[in-house]
Every structure is written in C-alpha cells, then in structure tokens.
Specification:
The complex is a heterodimer of chains A (164) and B (103).
Chain A lengths: L1 H29 L24 H9 L3 E3 L3 E4 L3 E2 L5 E7 L4 E8 L6 E6 L7 E6 L5 E9 L2 E11 L7
Parallel strand pairs in A: 1-9, 3-9
Antiparallel strand pairs in A: 2-4, 4-7, 5-6, 5-8, 8-9
Chain B lengths: L4 E8 L2 E8 L21 E8 L2 E8 L8 E7 L6 E8 L4 E7 L2
Antiparallel strand pairs in B: 1-2, 2-5, 3-4, 3-6, 6-7
Classes of the chains: A alpha+beta (164), B mainly beta (103).
Chain lengths: 164, 103
C-alpha cells in the first residue's frame, strides 16, 4: 500500500521539479544547435609533458623551449600550506600576448600540475588548487609572444598532499 | 556523469569573471586504499570553456590538481545573459558539460 501511496507524491514531485527545471531547460535549448560548440577533447591532453620529472624536461615537452625569469609574473601562493592536498595558487602576468600558463611543483612525483591555454581576449590570470607532496618550489611559467618566462616561490607543506 | 559542474560567470564592464567547481575525485595514482592497493589515477584531463562559439579557456590537468577542482579566470567580450558552455573529460573517458548563463 505504501508504494501506491507514494506514487501520487512522486508524480507531484516530478511536476514540481519539471516546473523548476523549466528555466534550466530553456537555457539548455538556447544552446542548440550543438555544432556551434565542441566538447572538451582528451586528444588535447599533453600526456608526455605530464610524465616528466624535471622543470626543463616538462617545459621542453610542453612548449619545446626553456624559460627565463621575469618580474612581470605574479605568483600568489601561501608561504606555508597546512594541507598539501589543497594549496590555493594563483598566477597573473602583465606580459603582452600571453598564450599559456603552466604550474609546476618541482618536488611532486611528476612536476607538471596544470597547464592553461589562454586565447586572445582572455586575461593572463588563473587561480586553482593544487596538491603538494611536500615542501617544494612552485614555478609559474607564462608563454608570451612565443617566449617562456617564469617566476617561482617556495611553499612549505606541513602535511603532504599525496593523500589528496 | 551529470551534475558535476557548478559555474558562476559574472560580467562586469568588458570582462567576465568565471569561477567553476567540478565534482571529481582527482585520484593521483600514488595513494593506497585500506587494503594497501594503489588507487589508480583518475583525474580530469581537459576542461574547456566556450562563449559565442569560441573557446575562451582550456585547462589541461594532471593528477596533482586537488579533488573537486576549483578554477577562476576572466575573459573579454561576454555579456549578461550570454551562454557559457563548460565541458570536461577525464582519463577514463567520462565527461560532463553544462551551459551556464552569464549574470
């Protein structure tokens, strides 16, 4: 009997949810036709770069060149990370024509943590959260006008983030 | 996988600030479970943001990005009411996408 009693309720709930989702559906249908958009494609992922153990090898695999230090990169990272599983890190740059930003954690098992493609019209700024196995130098690399520039900062980790 | 993406995009003047949060384990492949077995790497590889048929941001992530990844960036040209499409794919071929509206 309970199942029968539940049925009208379930029906009503669906109608209510339907009404609430109406707005969302309108948004979704507004996006059609789909061909205007492409989905994230795993083929873009630079598998080789993510396997490297050193800064130089990572940059060679990712960009095919090496970086020189720049004071036009701002690397926002904590002095001490209490939890290495979640270390908030931000990068921004005043360099011209920025096309890419990469973040490297030199003491992690694989050095490259994240790489970002910055198309024309997108600001040279990104914030994310990374895992750090232990205290390490964090390197922000910015691709600007076809050249690579970097800035780094030492982040002390009190509890390692490999468990994250 | 559905319903993994939360995104907030706010236009201010010429610039649209995007913040996103994706629900994903981001297993590094270096952690053992309670039986001492390695938990295989399971992480998002690519996240793409599109506005007006153009890719405005692409994230390429390894397993060192934290669980339930957060991301913030800004792009020019977005207007209030415009669509912003977010999509991701992980190393096991799972994916999700969402069309959000710029506020």
């Amino acid at each position: 009997m309970n199942e029968c009693d539940d049925a009208p309720d379930a029906g009503r709930r669906m109608i209510l949810q339907g009404a609430a989702a109406g707005g969302l559906a309108a948004v979704a249908f507004g996006a059609f036709p789909w061909p205007a958009y492409a989905d994230a494609d795993a083929k873009e992922w630079p598998a080789d770069a993510f396997k490297q153990k050193s800064e130089a090898d990572t940059l060679k695999a990712l960009y095919g060149k090496s970086a020189e230090p720049s004071d036009k990169i701002s690397l926002d990272a904590p002095e001490i990370a209490e939890n290495g599983a979640v270390v908030p890190i931000g990068v921004s740059s005043t360099l011209p024509k920025v096309t890419g930003i990469a973040l490297l954690v030199l003491e992690n098992p694989n050095v490259l943590a994240a790489a970002y493609k910055i198309p024309d019209g997108t600001e040279a700024s990104v914030s994310n959260r990374l895992k750090m196995a232990k205290t390490s130098k964090v390197v922000a690399v910015v691709e600007s006008g076809g050249k690579l520039y970097s800035a780094s900062k030492e982040v002390k980790v009190t509890v390692g983030g490999c468990g994250g | 996988m559905a319903g993994t993406i939360r995104v907030r995009a706010v236009a201010s003047g010429d610039s649209t600030e995007v913040q996103s949060l994706i629900r994903h384990p981001m297993d590094s492949g270096f952690v053992k479970d309670s039986k001492g077995e390695i938990i295989p790497a399971h992480h998002i590889e690519v996240v793409q943001f599109e506005h007006g048929g153009k890719t405005v941001f692409t994230a390429l992530w390894g397993p060192a990005v934290s669980k339930d990844p957060y991301l913030k960036f800004s792009f020019k040209g977005g207007k209030k009411g415009d669509d912003l499409k977010v999509s991701w794919v992980d190393n096991k071929g799972a994916s999700d996408s969402l069309v959000a509206r710029i506020g």
